Amino acid sequence: ITLFIFGGVAEIGAEPPSAKAEFWIAIAGPLVSFGLAVLFSLLQPALAVIPSLFAMSKYLALTNGSLALFNLIPGFPLDGGRVFRAAVWAVTKDLRRATLIAANGGRFFGFLFIFVGVWQMLIGNLGSGLWIAFIGWFLESAAASQIQQTMVKGLLVGHKVSEVMNREFATLAAETPLAEVVEKHVLAGGRRSFVVSQWGRPAGLLTLSSIREVPRDHWATTTAGQAMI
């Protein structure tokens, strides 16, 4: 769980295995918030004789109820958006399509919050308007990021590393000085990585990053075998 100004965001290690699992994962938070709101509402009559505890229970009931309602807005990545995604996923049987639909819903509500926030600022409610607009900006940014990730995953699914790997690689002897590597192969040839061979066998990989780790005035005396990964 990553904490930030609005509370926290839970990061799950992998996508839910089914629409049903997604629904129960997403609805758990709002259900707990609603449960707490009901609990503190029921406690208020018993705490009425103690003003401080009564005020606290009233505040906690209102806060949890408001939080549950906000999180049920059907815009991804809010819990309500994930519930909506689960419903679309169950109907379409397509997680990618459901994610794009729910995330676009999240962008819509994000822009709506921004509009309402700006309108509130224009009529004089600067503090609340700025806060609402900021929430809308965060929601729209998160939803747009999710759309981008989904599109990238869609492009990569079904492809293998072997399809994009480079089969033509440069080989260097381990005793080659780094100054020679940079002058003859990096600057002149534009290569960015090299397989380093030692005693006739591949011994390591030399990259631009590993070359940069060596001070420039040591390139003449440092070999590829000493700098390789």
**Residue windows where pLDDT falls under 50 for at least 5 positions:** none
| Class based on secondary structure composition and strand pairing | mainly alpha
Q: Average pLDDT value?
A: 88
Instruction: Specify the helix fraction band.
Output: 55-70%
Shape: elongated
Order of strands across the main sheet = 3-4-5
SSE arrangement, N to C: EEHHHHHHEHEEHH
| Structure summary, number of beta strands | 5
Strand content: 5-15%
Termini gap: 35 Å
Number of helices, counting only DSSP H or I runs of 4 residues or more: 9
Gyration radius over CA: 28 Å
The main pleated sheet reads as: 3 strands, mixed
Structural features, described:
64% of the residues lie in helices and 10% in strands. It is mostly helical. A 3-stranded mixed beta sheet has the order 3-4-5. The longest helix has 31 residues, at 126-156. It is elongated and about 85 Å long. The two termini are 35 Å apart. The mean pLDDT is 88.
